[in-house]
UniProtKB/TrEMBL annotation:
Residues 1-148 form the N-acetyltransferase domain. The keyword Secreted does not apply. The lineage of its organism: Bacteria, Pseudomonadati, Pseudomonadota, Betaproteobacteria, Burkholderiales. It catalyses: kanamycin B + acetyl-CoA = N(6')-acetylkanamycin B + CoA + H(+). Keywords: Acyltransferase, Antibiotic resistance, Transferase. InterPro entries: Acyl_CoA_acyltransferase, Aminoglycoside_N6-AcTrfrase, GNAT_dom, YpeA/RimI_acetyltransf. This is Aminoglycoside N(6')-acetyltransferase type 1. One of its GO terms (biological process) is response to antibiotic.
Length: 148
């Protein structure tokens, strides 16, 4: 297994893995967002994990957040923005290694907290967070109202 930091939007597997995690976005939207991250390397960190013969197996994206992050006490907080391991590569420790790399990056950025979130029905993700030492802080409900 090898972890590679993304340095271009053409990083092998990055777009495809992103689309698998967030299928609602069209490729152009993904690429614009990826380019924004690359243009702000002090704020964003992204890695692709490769297995075997350079098969893209997973990715992680993290950011430094200066606005309030639910359940945290410090600022800047490192936030796990996206984490995905392709189904054939799960339960092999890849998610663990991707998060370990994010923690090393966050430490280098002088952060003392790594925050994250998961949908209420995503029990696999919640189990992984707990297994890796995250503690649950808050549950929130989002609302919106259209303004005519
Ligand atoms: C969540 C996800 C990233 C985990 O990646 P992974 O590489 O399989 O995780 P790891 O192999 O490092 O798992 C570490 C530990 O977390 C726990 N864990 C991971 N996935 C789990 C699951 N589906 N159910 C229960 N526990 C789980 C286990 O304790 C596991 O250790 P073990 O395999 O020795 O029992 C992966 O399942 C995934 O991409 N899911 C879909 C996308 C997603 O939910 N992303 C997170 C959004 S917040």
């Amino acid at each position: 297994m090898k972890l590679v930091q993304c340095t271009s939007t053409g990083q092998d597997g990055w777009l495809g893995l992103r689309q698998a995690l967030w299928p609602e976005g069209v490729p152009a939207e993904h690429i614009a967002e990826m380019q924004f991250f690359l243009d702000h390397p002090g704020r964003f960190f992204q890695l692709v994990a490769y297995e075997g013969d350079n098969q893209p197996a997973g990715f992680v994206e993290a950011a430094l957040r200066g606005d309030y992050v639910n359940g945290t006490d410090s600022s800047l907080v490192a936030f796990l923005e996206g984490l995905y391991v392709a189904p054939g590569y799960r339960r092999m420790g890849i998610g663990t290694l991707l998060i370990a790399a994010v923690i090393a990056w966050a430490k280098a950025c002088h952060c003392t907290e790594l925050a994250s979130d998961a949908l209420l029905d995503n029990e696999g993700s919640q189990a992984m967070h707990r297994a890796l030492g995250f503690t649950e802080t808050e549950r929130v409900v989002f609302f919106r109202k259209l303004i005519p």
